[in-house]
Model the fold of this input.
Amino acid sequence: MATEKRSQVCNGEDEEQEDQKMEQFFALIKNFQEALNKRKNELRQREEKIKNEKQNKIRRLDDEQSSWVPTFEWTDFTEEIEFRRPPIIFPNPYNKKEEKKKQEEDDSLDLKLTL
Done:
């Protein structure tokens, strides 16, 4: 009886179903490999693009640096500079003239610690 069931399973519809399942399985594997290869190619192209962009930026910087060289003339330094506003004058923490006068008046040894 066991041999009769096996022969029925191997014959007819069961064989066709197994063939279809195997074809679907191999098609799935093939699709997976194609998707994997496609993704690898995309990543490789992206890396190459980034690398080329970096090289182009370096080239542009090199070209830009050599394009302009500043030149100075003596008149640039001799002319007076006119400011829009008067310069900001910060008050001194102490008056230096008064300190000098005190030192002149006091001929003794100065023991003050100052920075």
Summary: The chain has a mean pLDDT of 77.
